[in-house]
Amino acid sequence: MADYKKKNILVTGGAGFIGSHVVRTFVRRYPDYNIYNLDALTYAGNLENLKDIEGRDNYFFLKGDITDAAFIEKEFAEKQFDAVIHLAAESHVDRSITDPLAFAKTNILGTINLLNAFKAIWMDNWDGKLFYHVSTDEVYGSLGATGYFTEETPYDPNSPYSASKASSDHFVRAYGETYGLPYTISNCSNNYGPNQFPEKLIPLFINNIINKNPLPVYGDGNYTRDWLYVEDHAEAIDLIFHKGQKNETYNIGGFNEWKNIDLVGLLCRQMDIKLGRQEGESEKLITFVRDRPGHDLRYAIDASKIHDGLGWNPSVTFEEGLAKTIEWYFDNSEWLQHVTSGEYQKYYKTQYSQTRI
Ligand code: NAD
Ligand code: TYD
Predict the structure, then answer these.
(1) pLDDT tens digits for range 210-234
(2) Which of 13, 166, 169, 229 is 20 to 30 A from residue 103's alpha carbon, by CA?
(3) pTM, whole model, 2 decimals?
(4) Is 279 noted as a catalytic residue in this protein?
(5) Is the CB of 87 within 6 Å of ligand 1?
(6) For 72-107, what is each residue's pLDDT tens digit?
(7) Arithmetic mean of pLDDT over the chain
(8) 138 a catalytic residue
(9) Which residues fall within 8 angstroms of residue 169, CB to CB, at 6 or more apart?
(10) 32-59: b or e for each residue (b if 16 or more CB lie within 10 Å)?
């Protein structure tokens, strides 16, 4: 039973990749909070991610869908959440190209349902309340060879995923302006690390290297992303949650830009060492495939606001973070086997069968 004197914090999407690291950080660090993890357990949600903290008495799991307004309203009315950290989303660009509506439903309507339920319980007195919306740098669109995304960069989303996240950011700000709802938003660059579903570049390629399957590099591989270790993102979220300015946005990035093809080269070299394979063996698996439609050329974050204002910095270099990530996937081969069975096989076939060039 939850302790009624404690603050009730709702984390949505806590069974997913980033959400599970956020839940773990908060459950371990803040015994004075009741942490509620609300998750629909889609293909991307997995309670195995939280096995180590599921028995803690300040942790509670609620299975449910944020698109179900009645369910969300009921949970908010019952639990009187003091704060929300909202991560639940459809998160993979390639899936958004196949099924944009699913992204509009979860990312836009789901966010509005949460905002409405939060407003319904606190509208008369917002004191001490916070709606923290976790978003992505992809809302800013694509950079050319130079420049960085700042908090002032105009939104210019290109994929159905980023368009749906941009829309949800706008709704959060609109509820702030219209109803006085206290919020923070953070827009983070590409995350990597333990527990990431193997549809995203790094875990997909780790799994394919282990199994000696082709590494499908989109286009010429000259696309740039700014990579951040997931635990550093969770730290940033903790800082912004506790010390961020109300109704402000923070950009979070790794100061760590990599062209995809260079990143894949580094990954292959680290994997060859780990697997005891000859240098260059995994690189032979690289296969250039048809490009992603609307593929953003470059993302790079200017994270000086969170660095200067809140003293945040990434704690690991990319080489260290990647080595830790590889280690985790080796130590958790059962996790990898569980998530790559069944539905995953169908997804993989559909996504990659026609793409070789
Ligand atoms: P993920 O896909 O790994 O996890 C999403 C979680 O949300 C899963 O547990 C899933 O079950 C849950 N979920 C999905 N639809 C739901 C619904 N309708 N109701 C309730 N739960 C639902 O995603 P992630 O990579 O951990 O991303 C988390 C958040 O961070 C997202 O909002 C994403 O936009 C944002 N983000 C991700 C990255 C990244 O690189 N992964 C970078 C910046 C921002
Ligand atoms: P991804 O991990 O899907 O993240 P995002 O699209 O949100 O940046 O992809 C990272 C980069 O890797 C992106 O430029 C697309 C590219 N990519 C490939 O080249 N091949 C793949 O199979 C995948 C999944 C991604």
Answers:
(1) 999 999 999 999 999 999 999 999 9
(2) 229
(3) 0.98
(4) no
(5) yes
(6) 999 999 999 999 999 999 999 999 999 999 999 999
(7) 97
(8) yes
(9) 133, 135, 139, 155, 185, 187
(10) ebbbbbbbbebebbbeebbeebeeeebb
Helices 318-331 and 201-210: crossing angle in degrees, nearest 10, is 50
C-alpha to C-alpha distance for 237 and 41, rounded to whole angstroms: 22
Ligand 1: atom nearest CA of 196 is 3
- Ligand 2 pocket (Cβ < 6 Å) reads 93, 190, 200-201, 204, 216-218, 223, 225, 260, 292
Please tell me which residue in 138, 151, 226, 257 is annotated as part of the active site.
Answer: 138
- How many residues are listed for the chain in this entry? 357
C-alpha 276 – ligand 1 centre gap (Å): 34
In this structure, what token pair is assigned to residue 53?
A: 């903290």
Asked if residue 254 has its Cβ within 6 Å of ligand 1, the reply is no
C-alpha to C-alpha distances, 300 to 60, 143, 246, 306, nearest whole angstrom: 36, 8, 25, 15
Give the Å distances, CA to CA, from 308 to 29, 120, 304: 24, 36, 6
Domains in the chain with CATH codes: 8-192+226-252 (3.40.50.720), 201-224+257-297+317-345 (3.90.25.10)
